[in-house]
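A reminder from the course coordinator: this example appears on the midterm review sheet, so study it carefully.

Given structure:
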């Protein structure tokens, strides 16, 4: 949630209120982030992001380098007949969101394909919608899952978004059982998706997402699913 408060240092009270957490919990999270280099504490009781958001995905502990993510995403693209491949990192602030950290789309013009920069690059994009969001959400603590399940469905969600909270919660269980998620026009009309989790040790760090036009991928081929899982495994650390 630090990202939503704007640039500069912010007092602990404002951060905890924005994150809807108590001061003690927020202080522990921020303290760990200072140690990891995600945040700095320029003044007593005040915190700020250590680097611009665009750089933070690659300073998280044991996170993939840009070369590693590009290699994995390009390999995924080749294995899926030119699918669009993305790496979504869990938001570096306290918000329960995701950030597009890297992509392999070849010469594709995302605007011509019907996507806007907001569709793929929004830092505050909710985990409430989309295969890439649900994959991350499935491995987050119950408290955060409950908070996200209570969120309203974003206006830009696609026609296939899971609207029922019970069905959404059940989908998170299935993600943990299967190790991947399928999305049918969840985030954008006309696009289906496959996503798999990227782990930093025992913690969820990101998700790899494959997008294909719905008319070309009405159902996810097993080979595509396995290719997405391989890309995610290549970017995970133990």
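Designed residues:
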């Amino acid at each position: 949630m630090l990202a939503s408060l704007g640039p500069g240092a912010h007092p602990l009270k404002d951060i905890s209120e924005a994150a809807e957490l108590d001061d003690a919990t927020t202080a522990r999270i921020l303290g760990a982030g200072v140690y990891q280099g995600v945040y700095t504490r320029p003044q007593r009781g005040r915190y700020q992001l250590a680097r611009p958001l665009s750089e933070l995905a690659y300073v998280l502990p044991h996170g993939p380098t840009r070369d590693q993510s590009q290699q994995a995403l390009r390999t995924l693209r080749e294995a899926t007949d030119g699918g669009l491949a993305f790496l979504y990192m869990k938001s570096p602030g306290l918000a329960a969101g995701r950030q597009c950290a890297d992509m392999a789309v070849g010469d594709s013009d995302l605007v011509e394909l019907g996507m806007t920069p907001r569709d793929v690059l929004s830092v505050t994009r909710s985990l409430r919608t989309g295969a890439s969001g649900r994959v991350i959400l499935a491995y987050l603590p119950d408290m955060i899952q409950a908070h996200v399940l209570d969120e309203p469905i974003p206006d830009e969600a696609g026609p296939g978004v899971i609207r029922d909270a019970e069905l959404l919660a059940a989908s998170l269980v299935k993600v943990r059982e299967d190790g991947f998620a399928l999305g049918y026009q969840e985030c954008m009309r006309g696009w289906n998706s496959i996503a798999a989790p990227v782990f930093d040790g025992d913690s969820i760090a990101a998700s790899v997402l494959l997008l294909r036009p719905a008319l070309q991928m009405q159902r996810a081929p097993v080979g595509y699913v396995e290719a997405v899982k391989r890309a995610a495994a290549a970017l995970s650390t133990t």
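The longest strand covers residues 203-213. The two ends are 27 Å apart (CA to CA).
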